[in-house]
Task: structure prediction
Amino acid sequence: MSLRTTWIACGALLCSTGCITSSVVDSTGRAVAVPDTKLVWSPARPEDLRGLYESVSIEGEVAASLWKIEYVFGADGSYSGAALVLGADNPQFQTLSGRWTLDNGILDLGEGQTARASSAADHLKLENEGGVAILRRAAVQ
Amino acid sequence: MTQKFLQRFGVVALFVLVAGSIAALIVVRDRMDITVADEASASRRGPDPVELLAADVAVVRDDVRGLGEGFRSGMQSLHDALEGSAGERETRLAAEVAALRSELAIVRNRLDQNAAEAAGSRAQVNQALATLGQGLQDLAKAVAEDSRQAVSVAPIVLAPAAAPSVEVAAAEVPVPAVPAATTAPESAPKKGFLSFQLPSQGFVFDQRQRFAIVSNLSRVGFDAKSTLHDFSGVTTRVEGEITANLAKPGENCSGSVSAQSASLDTGLEARDESMREILEPAKFPEVRFDWSAFEPTSVDAAAQKVVGVAKGKLSIHGVARDVSMPVTITVDASKRLAIDGQTKIKMSDFGVKPPSKLGLISVEDEAVLWIALRARTLGPAADAKR
Result:
């Protein structure tokens, strides 16, 4: 390799550094993050509930032991749900079923279990004094 | 004619009378024993049966009278006995009632005393709580003052840039840490949430418990500098478990966190390939930190925040070295631990030669190793249950 070729290669290399951007993760952005979806919530309507949902976020005191929720709301007013709940040592699934009604944005799951229900694009938010669960519409495999 | 009739009737009547007598004699002849005896013989034959019968009747009458009197006497005795038993029982019941009343009075006195003592204790507890609250406020002020004065670990200042493409399994939306105003963990019983039955106890800060790393929400990485440009290597293939009491993190804190070295992603395939040649993931599949101690610098139970230095052995490329990593532990709104920390390491300390290309592009020996973990409680540790 001639001296001229070497200088050209070095020059090209130095120029290329300006084209390759740094890929260091910012220290404030190291935690896992999901795209910040701007959801606009409105009181849920019965047609919003029908289908299969899985939780993407559970907040509040209940989150200490409630790891995951899935619900399927039927058009006939029936529902079935499963939750991953921390038991004595390890999380275990709980399942249940019943009938649901929705009136003025209040979801009644029976036996006095109610929650304020809001909907956004393919999302459902259920909240009461115990916590807030945000569910995303899921596809049946 | 009448005289003739009377004669014939007299004859017939006489005849009938004789015939009847003969017939009667024939009938009773076998049943009749007629003895004709003189006066002396008659007296030797015994008393008159009629008199004997009368005497027997008199005896029977006396017996019946005696039985009647005996029966009357027995009934009287029974009556007296019953009356006596009832009286005795009544006396005994009265005594028992009196004893119970006496015991009840004693119990009432004790209850009154206990109520008075409880009232006194409640007042003492309230006073202690007020004192404790004041102490916590003072402590919070002192901690805030200290934190302003403390020399923090110098962060590595790097130019913000786009993060490398990292596989993000967004099963849960991470949320920021709870604000300082968060109250202490509640232990009030809950009936359930959305029809699911949940344990009565919520998140407990002051309890030795196990925490499992939530893999898809945790990241481990390093920041490296090179002559060409700086870069990070990141992986979410993280797992592990930590056992600690957040309120007393300096006591017997332990655990381990491991990341798959083959899954480290720097954003450039060629660079990843070079990194794998150096780390040899087939031979040393894990980058592992065995957490053996924690030196807290501040513990804020109200804010559920712990700051300190995690100590343990870091294993890279099969070489283990003691490291200390300043970390901050908080509890987020989803009651997960958020463990964030970083420390500087030298690759050469772990037998890793910093990569160099043609002597022109080289990576600095020093790198920043960082963790951004999310962990969920698995409940009280085994030794805490005892």
Q: What stands out?
A: Chain A has a mean pLDDT of 85.
